[in-house]
Amino acid sequence: MTRISYVDAAGDAREVDVRPGLSIADGALFNGVKGIEADCGGCCACATCHVWFDPEWYRRLPPVEELEELMLDHAVDRRETSRLSCQLRVDDALEGLVVHVPQRQYL
Prior knowledge:
This protein is an alpha+beta fold. It has helices spanning about 25-30, 55-60, 65-70; strands spanning about 1-5, 15-20, 50, 80-85, 95-100. The protein has one domain: Beta-grasp domain (Ubiquitin-like (UB roll)). The strands form 2 sheets. The protein has a 3-stranded mixed β-sheet, covered by helices on one side. About 35% of the residues are buried.
Protein backbone atom coordinates (compact mmCIF):
# COMPACT_ATOMS: atom_id res chain seq x y z
CA MET A 1 0.00 0.00 0.00
CA THR A 2 1.08 3.55 -0.71
CA ARG A 3 0.37 6.29 1.84
CA ILE A 4 -1.26 9.37 0.26
CA SER A 5 -2.46 12.52 1.99
CA TYR A 6 -5.52 14.29 0.57
CA VAL A 7 -5.79 17.92 1.72
CA ASP A 8 -9.12 19.72 1.43
CA ALA A 9 -9.67 23.43 0.75
CA ALA A 10 -9.74 24.17 4.49
CA GLY A 11 -6.27 22.64 4.87
CA ASP A 12 -7.44 19.51 6.67
CA ALA A 13 -5.43 16.44 5.64
CA ARG A 14 -6.57 12.85 5.52
CA GLU A 15 -3.93 10.15 5.11
CA VAL A 16 -5.02 6.91 3.49
CA ASP A 17 -3.39 3.76 2.16
CA VAL A 18 -3.97 3.20 -1.56
CA ARG A 19 -3.24 -0.01 -3.42
CA PRO A 20 -0.66 0.42 -6.20
CA GLY A 21 -2.29 0.31 -9.63
CA LEU A 22 -5.37 2.25 -8.58
CA SER A 23 -5.82 5.82 -9.75
CA ILE A 24 -5.43 8.66 -7.27
CA ALA A 25 -9.16 9.34 -7.82
CA ASP A 26 -10.10 5.75 -6.95
CA GLY A 27 -7.88 5.94 -3.88
CA ALA A 28 -9.96 8.89 -2.70
CA LEU A 29 -13.31 7.36 -3.60
CA PHE A 30 -12.58 3.97 -2.01
CA ASN A 31 -11.47 5.69 1.21
CA GLY A 32 -14.37 8.15 1.46
CA VAL A 33 -12.31 11.27 0.75
CA LYS A 34 -14.70 14.10 -0.04
CA GLY A 35 -14.24 16.55 -2.91
CA ILE A 36 -13.21 14.20 -5.71
CA GLU A 37 -16.34 13.31 -7.66
CA ALA A 38 -15.02 11.45 -10.74
CA ASP A 39 -18.47 11.53 -12.34
CA CYS A 40 -17.24 9.89 -15.57
CA GLY A 41 -15.85 6.89 -13.70
CA GLY A 42 -12.24 7.68 -14.54
CA CYS A 43 -12.62 8.03 -18.32
CA CYS A 44 -11.02 11.51 -18.54
CA ALA A 45 -14.34 12.97 -19.65
CA CYS A 46 -15.54 15.34 -16.93
CA ALA A 47 -12.76 17.07 -14.90
CA THR A 48 -14.59 16.41 -11.60
CA CYS A 49 -11.53 14.65 -10.22
CA HIS A 50 -9.39 17.77 -10.59
CA VAL A 51 -6.65 18.15 -7.98
CA TRP A 52 -3.35 19.96 -7.71
CA PHE A 53 0.07 19.26 -6.30
CA ASP A 54 2.97 21.11 -4.76
CA PRO A 55 5.56 21.82 -7.49
CA GLU A 56 8.08 19.26 -6.20
CA TRP A 57 5.49 16.47 -6.45
CA TYR A 58 4.12 17.73 -9.77
CA ARG A 59 7.54 17.40 -11.40
CA ARG A 60 7.66 13.72 -10.39
CA LEU A 61 4.38 12.83 -12.10
CA PRO A 62 4.13 11.50 -15.66
CA PRO A 63 3.48 14.17 -18.31
CA VAL A 64 -0.03 15.38 -19.08
CA GLU A 65 -1.44 13.77 -22.22
CA GLU A 66 -3.46 15.69 -24.80
CA LEU A 67 -6.94 14.54 -23.72
CA GLU A 68 -6.23 15.33 -20.08
CA GLU A 69 -4.97 18.79 -21.07
CA LEU A 70 -8.22 19.44 -22.96
CA MET A 71 -10.32 18.34 -19.98
CA LEU A 72 -8.26 20.43 -17.57
CA ASP A 73 -9.49 23.48 -19.50
CA HIS A 74 -12.90 22.74 -17.90
CA ALA A 75 -11.58 22.36 -14.34
CA VAL A 76 -12.71 24.87 -11.74
CA ASP A 77 -9.82 26.91 -10.26
CA ARG A 78 -7.17 25.29 -12.47
CA ARG A 79 -3.57 25.88 -11.41
CA GLU A 80 -0.18 25.33 -13.02
CA THR A 81 0.16 22.06 -11.09
CA SER A 82 -3.38 20.80 -11.75
CA ARG A 83 -4.04 17.25 -12.91
CA LEU A 84 -7.00 14.93 -13.27
CA SER A 85 -6.57 12.37 -10.53
CA CYS A 86 -8.23 9.65 -12.63
CA GLN A 87 -5.26 9.80 -15.01
CA LEU A 88 -2.58 9.14 -12.39
CA ARG A 89 -1.81 5.59 -11.23
CA VAL A 90 -0.47 4.98 -7.75
CA ASP A 91 2.89 3.23 -7.35
CA ASP A 92 5.53 2.96 -4.64
CA ALA A 93 7.28 6.11 -5.92
CA LEU A 94 4.27 8.13 -4.76
CA GLU A 95 4.68 7.16 -1.09
CA GLY A 96 3.91 10.30 0.95
CA LEU A 97 2.23 12.12 -1.96
CA VAL A 98 0.18 15.17 -0.98
CA VAL A 99 -2.92 15.77 -3.12
CA HIS A 100 -4.75 19.10 -2.83
CA VAL A 101 -8.50 18.88 -3.43
CA PRO A 102 -10.29 22.05 -4.59
CA GLN A 103 -13.22 23.52 -2.71
CA ARG A 104 -15.55 22.57 -5.55
CA GLN A 105 -15.57 20.63 -8.81
CA TYR A 106 -18.50 22.48 -10.43
CA LEU A 107 -19.16 26.12 -11.32
